[in-house]
Amino acid sequence: MHTRSNNDKAIYRKTITDRIFWSVIAVGAVIASLIMVLIVIFLVVESYDFIDRVGVLHFVTDDGWWPLDQLYNLTPMLVASLGVSFGALAIASPLAIIFSVYCVFYNKGWWQGFFERIVDVTAAIPTVIYGFWGLMVVVPIMNKFTSHGVNLFSGMLVLAMMIFPTIAMLTTSALKSVPFNQIQGATALGVRRSSLIKKIALPHAKPGIVMAMILGITRAIGETMVVLMLCGNVVQFPSSLFDPTRTLTANIALEMPYAMGDHRSSLFVTGLMVLIVVSILVIISEVYANRKRTMNH
């Protein structure tokens, strides 16, 4: 009887603890969601009156970005943001996939988790450190080959280094999620490791790899310090990889401290454009993931 009473008390305490834990998690999720909604509302409210008064076309058809002269063309900076982000993704993704395949299928022995730990640590490095390293190392090298050491390509290289850990960690997790019985069965049938990776592991992990790439590029598009320090900050359509240019986020960081009136409102429109681009990428990734889940079921 006494033992049963103790068991009941233990179960009751565990139930209360679980309820408290999940309540805290739920409250945290609600607060985080509300913060995101409030940010979106804030951007829309700050931008709406200006967009309604000026018109959407001015942001793509004006002669340039001269806010004091009522010229608000954001297209060059949008192209630069997409160019540097997709360029960084094109550099980082293959390297991250190769790294993950090596860590999961080839990296054995006492150093099995060593490289993964290093990548985990590099993911926590502040972006300003990446930018400073780029100024001290990448820019002097670029100056030897082009007249502008701070340019689109310099930003791509350092941005690729910055998003590499994110893509690599998520890709590694996706490859580790491949069912062990499939790998074991293929190995028992004498399938070579290279064929196993190509025919079984990578197709199974493809949705996770795509999500990792989407997360990487959304981080790249939202990055400020690296592109501010390395891309040159000239508002123009880049005609080559070695032209200086300015991204949307760098534009906000540079001009918000002194912007007033319509100039300030136009910078909120810039932020809203960044949010729209990132939202489109997230929606694409969700649609792709849902389609893959449907196909698998």
Features:
297 residues, mainly alpha, MetI-like fold, 2 domains, two-stranded antiparallel ribbon, globular, Phosphate_PstC
Topology, element by element:
Layout: H1 2-54, H2 58-61, E1 65-66, E2 71-72, H3 75-106, H4 114-122, H5 127-143, H6 152-176, H7 180-188, H8 193-222, H9 225-230, H10 248-255, H11 261-296
Antiparallel strand pairs: 1-2
Can you give a write-up of this model?
By secondary structure, the chain is an all-alpha fold. It has two domains: 2-54; 61-296, Orthogonal Bundle (MetI-like fold), CATH 1.10.3720. Helix content is 77%, strand content 1%. The chain contains eleven helices and two strands. It has a two-stranded antiparallel sheet. β1 (65-66) and β2 (71-72) form a beta hairpin. The mean pLDDT is 87. Keywords: Cell inner membrane, Cell membrane, Membrane, Phosphate transport, Transmembrane, Transmembrane helix, Transport. InterPro entries: MetI-like, MetI-like_sf, Phosphate_PstC, Phosphate_Transport_Permease. Part of the binding-protein-dependent transport system for phosphate; probably responsible for the translocation of the substrate across the membrane. One of its GO terms (biological process) is phosphate ion transport.
